[in-house]
Amino acid sequence: MPAPPLVRETHIAAPPATVFAFLTDPEKILSWMGAEATTEAHSGGLYLVKGVGGRNTARGAFREVVPVHRLAYSFGWEGDEAMPPGSTLVEIDLIERDDGTLLRLTHTGIPDAEHHESHGIGWTHYLGRLGMAAAGGKLGVDRGPPGLGDAHGDVR
Question: Is residue 100 predicted with pLDDT exceeding 50?
């Protein structure tokens, strides 16, 4: 039985157009997550980020792209039988606020409690990095959330 939806919200001190670019432009994605990224931000287009947390590869396909407002893409991990590429759904809504953007992420289809917990930690970590990068901060190399094991049980 799949885990309940994972929902995270964060305020980012940047306009929705800036945040959207940091979610879809491969060069900007690398400022806050991963070591290599390929995105084709249109329905059916590829979502691929290699080196997440220093070693994992996330892959899926865009299902919905509404510039500066909403993204939805399938998501999963290469080499993870419980959560393979494209097996879950990530939906991101960007809501304009006077002082920036409210980002609401909903991740559904997560297969079990273990993956739900690790993805909760991971999304919290990466949304924090996204917020800093989109607001103009310079971040170091992505090494992933401290102490979190990867999809294969390795501990950092």
Answer: yes
Q: What 3 state SS string does the chain have?
A: CCCCCEEEEEEECCCHHHHHHHHHCHHHHCCCCCCEEEECCCCCCEEEEEEECCCEEEEEEEEEEECCCEEEEEEEECCCCCCCCCCEEEEEEEEEECCEEEEEEEEECCCCHHHHHHHHHHHHHHHHHHHHHHCCCCCCCCCCCCCCCCCCCCCC
The pair of structure tokens assigned to 85 is: 């590429």
* DSSP β-bridge partners for residue 91: 72, 106
pLDDT band for position 142 (cuts 50, 70, 90): confident
Q: State residue 140's pLDDT score.
A: 85
pLDDT digit string, tens, across residues 72-81: 999 999 999 9
Cβ proximity of 71 and 62 under 8 Å: yes
Q: Which CATH number fits domain 6-134: 1.25.40.340, 3.30.565.40, 3.50.50.60, 3.30.530.20?
A: 3.30.530.20
0.85 surpassed by pTM: yes
